[in-house]
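Q: what sequence does this backbone want?
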């Protein structure tokens, strides 16, 4: 079983916060492929005396190659409340990313229009007004630099398909380990660093607990070893 106690950051009667490993889908319909939803249902079924299938409500998702914090509801009422918080931007999500390059400013905002290609499972920046394009916005802050590699902390203002990867690449700062949106230089640097996974981690999550109305904040450090030079004490 993939979901072990160390994957669970927080759990109560209403919700679960987990640290999703790299290369595990949030949810998938593919037969034989493990995902977080099915693993959590197995976990809850094993520790419960009830024989019915446990409820797991997906509140938000992470791309399969990306590690980090995920929030799930354990009942429909909680799921409805947290989904409203997503819509109202009450839930705040932050990411760490390693990029090739250095922003001109230590902090700033990227605002683009993204068009998703469902067949190719990718998105691209297009002109405003393009049919089916959606506005994407993120805020970033440079947290550290080592030669040509920068550690960026990103706050998502919208939740678009592959948003951070697309916008950072379009801004000339592709993510380390990203073969889909990287350029030749970043791909070569990723090989030199022996980076096997995308250097992106959902590191901080904030929301209001639906039952207690308490503000909950959870923060983790990336497990991907390419981040370690920036987090070693």
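A:
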């Amino acid at each position: 079983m993939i979901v072990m106690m160390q994957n669970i950051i927080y759990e109560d009667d209403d919700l679960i916060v987990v640290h999703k490993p790299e290369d595990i889908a949030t949810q998938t319909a593919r037969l034989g492929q493990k995902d977080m939803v099915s693993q959590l249902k197995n976990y809850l079924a094993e520790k419960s005396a009830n024989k019915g299938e446990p409820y797991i409500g997906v509140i938000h998702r992470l791309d399969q190659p990306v590690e980090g914090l995920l929030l799930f509801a354990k009942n429909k009422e909680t799921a409805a409340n947290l989904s409203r918080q997503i819509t109202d931007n009450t839930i705040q999500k932050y990411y760490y990313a390693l990029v090739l390059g250095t922003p001109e400013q230590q902090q700033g905002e990227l605002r683009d229009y993204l068009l998703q290609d469902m067949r190719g499972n990718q998105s691209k920046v297009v002109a405003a007004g393009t049919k089916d394009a959606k506005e994407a916005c993120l805020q970033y802050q440079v947290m550290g630099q080592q030669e040509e590699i920068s550690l960026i902390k990103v706050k998502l203002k919208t939740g678009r398909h592959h948003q951070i990867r697309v916008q950072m690449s379009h801004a000339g700062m592709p993510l380390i380990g990203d073969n889909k949106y990287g350029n030749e230089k970043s791909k070569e640097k990723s090989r030199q660093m022996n980076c096997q996974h995308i250097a992106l981690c959902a590191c901080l999550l904030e929301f209001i607990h639906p039952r207690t109305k308490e503000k909950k904040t959870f923060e983790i450090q990336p497990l991907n070893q390419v981040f370690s030079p920036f987090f070693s004490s």
